[in-house]
Amino acid sequence: MFKVFLLFILFIVVSYFIRKANKNTFDVKVNKITVKPDQTSMESTQLNVLHLSDLHLENLSITPNELYRQVRNEKIDLIALTGDFLDRKRSIPKLIPYLDVFKKIAPEHGSYAVFGNHDYVLKKKNFEELKQLLQKNGVKTFQNENKSLKIQGHCLNIIGIDDFSTKRSDVVKSYASLQPGFNLVLTHDPNLVLHMKDYHFDYLLSGHFHGGQICYPKPYHLVKMGKLVRMNMIKGFHTHDGKPFYINEGLGQTGINIRVGSNPEITIHTLTLSEQQAAQQQAI
Q1: Which residues on adjacent β-strands are paired with residue 184?
Q2: How deeply is 137 buried, as exposed, middle or buried, from its count of CB atoms within 10 A (0-12, 13-18, 19+)?
Q3: Residue from 234, 270, 239 nearest 250 by CA
Q4: Domain residue spans in the chain?
Q5: pTM score above 0.85
Q6: Which of 13, 37, 179, 217 is the most buried (most CB within 10 A)?
Q7: 139, 181, 190, 137: which is closest to 158 by C-alpha?
Q8: Is omega for the bond preceding 217 within 30 degrees of 0, making it cis?
Q9: CATH superfamily membership of 2-283
């Protein structure tokens, strides 16, 4: 009888902490990052990039309405999505109302996406359905490709490098025929930065780690996810080889819909485009 009582108490305690951890998945944080270059010319312009990652629609507590409410009063010039939308075919329709939010935001310079390891869990036909859904709703997808935009006389190179963790990255192909300008890299797994010493970027956006998702006492479970974890780089702003990059904590969760010591994240990055950056690249 005493053992049954102890099990009951244990059940109550575990249930309490699971509910509390699930409540954390609704507590989205909006982080604003301003990236200042070492040098700028008088002829410079700012670009506000809305960065979302790891929606994981199977375990996502943030509704489309809540997402829109969080950013509706922000000036958004471009949307960057860094992978792991979902991993089950039945989840694909759940993406549509979020895509409607992106269209409602209507960024002047478009929406862009790369894919993550969970997206590639989908079979080929289902993956193509996901890719086509994004494209039909105005999201340009990249798989080791780049696109150049002219923004108030400045060149912005958006470089979409495929998922590193599933060995799909091709940096050479991604940088092919690149023009001088501001290099903004989108990729899912930030471990890629450790292999880009000879490739210039002005800023890199990524996700993948969920900020640990469960960080109590420490996110030991991330150790198998690459060298950056052992370097204590699992979220936020960092530099490597003198180049800045950002690891988004993600909007959704994997495994179980809980968070401990981490929060769903929406990030708005303010970048400065200038002729100085283009001139420096030409000199390299």
Answers
A1: 158, 203
A2: middle
A3: 234
A4: 2-283
A5: yes
A6: 37
A7: 181
A8: yes
A9: Metallo-dependent phosphatases (3.60.21.10)
